[in-house]
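Same chain as my last thread, 212 residues:
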Amino acid sequence: MSPQSVPAQPEVNLNNSPSPPVKPDPQFVDIRDKLECTEAELANARIEKNALEIASHEKEQRIAQLEQQISSLSADQAQIKALQSQLESATRQVDAAEQEKRLLADKIQVAQDRFNKPKPRAHPAASGIPGIRGRVLAVNRSYNFVVLDLGAREGVESNTEMVVMRGSTYIGKIRVSSVEPATTIGDIVITSLAHGVRVQQGDTVVYGGTNF
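reply #2:
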């Protein structure tokens, strides 16, 4: 009789204590945190991208509307160019007038400084007697006014008139509009000038003292 085979016995774990917890790898934790941060930044970037696409689409629609408005304009190009040319010419004239105004202001200042210095006079100061003579310091052709070397000290008053002479030749009249102590600004009376005659720097003025 053959001996009976003995079945193999399972191995018994003699160590009944629980296994210690496995600590995560610090490098793995760092990578995981960076991944989460990157995902958050990616989500924000997608939100911003969507907002930019919406804004870009709105701008494209606005541009299309403007282009449609421009294309619908029926103004003649030649007329537009003519208007642009007129605008440029007017701008140049304004610039020239401003420059001339600055030059006149400098001349006025020089004249005032000169006349502020005491000097003997051939006539009483502030007499206001008609017949006092002066000289044209500057002429503004654009706005038809002149600057004179007579002022309130000689008795010149606003809303009076002066006669302009060149030697013994009558030139025209000036209407006083502004009076300073040593200078006067007057408007040229265009209707008083003969055809082709202009008031010039250096012309003599005779104070008439007539209110009008």
